[in-house]
Design brief:
It is a single chain. By secondary structure, this protein is mainly alpha-helical. The protein has 6 helices and 2 strands. The protein has a two-stranded parallel sheet. The longest helix is centred in the first third of the chain and has 14 residues. The model has no long low-confidence stretch (mean pLDDT 81).
């Protein structure tokens, strides 16, 4: 089961912008400009001026959104309370990532998980800057999915608007 996965960089990047457009977060004109002038193929390093102009229109409209749940409030207070808010199917805690960060950086938790055995000098982060220079990642896992299915493994890929509950 793969939820909200990065499957194929080219279509994933285009898809996020199309998703924003289909949810009225950015103008249809901007989507058309991105589709026409942007290339998200492997090896593309620099975008055209028209692409960059369209991409710059996206940020002001989406910067204050949780892109994993566009309907939910965002975390405005990074201070932790004694306990996180109770999470239900109808109400999530927009600051839940802060609790996860604090929990997974506790020495007792890291010891129990056999994590950070080399005593790194920085915190564990959900999206850290250390791996952003990762150069050997696959730009597409479609061939792997085909291989899995050819070998009898069933694959279920899903995506939906609100998954952090």
């Amino acid at each position: 089961m793969i939820g909200n996965a990065a499957i194929h960089d080219e279509t994933d990047w285009l898809g996020i912008y199309q998703y924003f457009g289909s949810h009225a977060l950015i103008a249809q004109r901007t989507i058309r400009q991105i589709e026409k002038h942007c290339a998200f193929s492997p090896g593309v390093i620099n975008q055209t001026k028209k692409c960059n102009a369209a991409l710059h229109e996206v940020d002001p409209n989406t910067a204050n959104l949780d892109i994993y749940n566009i309907y939910a409030p965002i975390c405005l207070d990074s201070n932790l309370t004694a306990k996180p808010k109770k999470v239900t199917a109808l109400q999530s805690d927009p600051c839940i990532d802060n609790y996860v960060h604090a929990y997974l950086n506790r020495p007792d938790v890291q010891e129990a998980l056999h994590a950070n055995v080399t005593k790194l000098k920085y915190d564990w982060e959900a999206c850290n800057r250390v791996v952003y220079n990762w150069t050997d990642s696959l730009w597409s896992i479609i061939s792997l999915l085909h291989e899995f299915m050819e070998n009898g493994l069933r694959v279920w890929v899903y995506r939906y608007d609100s998954w952090r509950c």
